[in-house]
């Protein structure tokens, strides 16, 4: 599938997503909530399809990974053990002149609000404050009376729910190391510099998998998961030339990590290559910390060798919203249409994640065409999300479906009512096949993929 880069792709997508019902700004009628987004009718389907693909590849298609759905609110000690209370902080500086707020360690990535050609602190008028530490976790209270309630946190990652359930899952499923636990869920971070649409938000969804392995085999598994996860992104249709690994340098490496690679995607424009997924070798840090803080053993018992040990963890952690954005950026293209004055905008989404799989049109509103087309759409809906449209010119109807990424358009025309055939148009090649209406279901099933 062709993929192009457009410097202003983010602006184009924000507008397309609102216009077509993919993504809306949260609480828009009140002026919007900062860096929080709502998924509309098409967006919710796209993200759900992505999550289903991940769940299928990581849980259902494998014997060695179990699923979990842990709660967002956890015991406050979890976040002391994980290091998030003490360490999940960013240094912040404010500018007294422009009132801008910046990450002290990322000033070179920021622009002075008064003189955008300079970084904060470089313009004569800049007056930066001392750096302050700012914890990224959202705090709330558990219990009805605030004064006596316990302070709890909205989880900043889903991983900790997996670590604390390590033995529950292992013992209830009788899995043997090596095995993994996967979950999809919301995470919250009070990001200082959110932005770029759904790239960095304060509420987002993670798809994380923790793979528990015998110490000494961890680097082998790390390499395995690095390759597996890259292959998953490629199978999703993300262009290979837009994907790359980034190895964490000694400075970037978290204190507990033995090795870490990001999978980066080229978002184009000023963003360029950015992390969409992290693959981390976390050693025994997490389980050991939870043993210490909870006082409960989190050891694996190897029955055959009569040996107990704390497994090492290889983690794969990907943002559902960030991959959604990558799929939108990857798929967006503007192109000329042979023989037509107006070009078209296409969202070349992989058919397996496209929100609507096929649109059924009646060429005109007469001669039994709408009846036949409606009947076909209803039949297809038993298996696929299908749109029905009979208004406007056929060209306009095609353009609308191209713009939302519908892979196939099925048209009922004058011949259809006479001989029971319809045309099926491919979004990408524009090729049209004439097939029996009764064959459309099989035709789509063959081409949509998982
Ligand atoms: N458990 C490890 C962990 O959370 P991370 O690198 O902080 O690692 C993993 O996050 C992934 O979660 C990122 O690669 C990204 O896709 C997604 N993510 C992190 N912060 C995000 C944010 N503020 N908005 C959207 N996605 C985010």
Quick synopsis:
The chain has 450 residues and is an alpha+beta fold.
Describe the structure.
- With 450 residues, this protein is α+β, with helices and mostly antiparallel strands.
- 30% of the residues lie in helices and 27% in strands.
- The protein has helices at 9-20, 41-60, 76-81, 84-87, 159-164, 166-173, 218-235, 285-294, 320-331, 369-381, 394-404, 414-419, 440-448; strands at residues 23-25, 37-39, 65-67, 89-94, 101-103, 132-135, 139-142, 150-153, 179-188, 203-213, 243-247, 259-266, 273-283, 300-302, 307-309, 312-319, 332-335, 344-347, 358-362, 386-389, 408-412, 421-426, 432-436.
- Strands 3-9-10-16-13-12-11 form a seven-stranded mixed beta sheet, with helices on both faces. The chain has a five-stranded mixed beta sheet with strand order 20-19-21-22-23, sandwiched between helices.
- Strand 12 (259-266) and strand 13 form a beta hairpin.
- It is globular.
- Glycyl-adenosine-5'-phosphate (GAP) binds next to strand 10, strand 13, strand 16 and helix 9.
- Glycyl-adenosine-5'-phosphate binds at residues 157, 159, 189, 191, 200-201, 204, 206, 208, 275-278, 315, 317-319, 321-322.
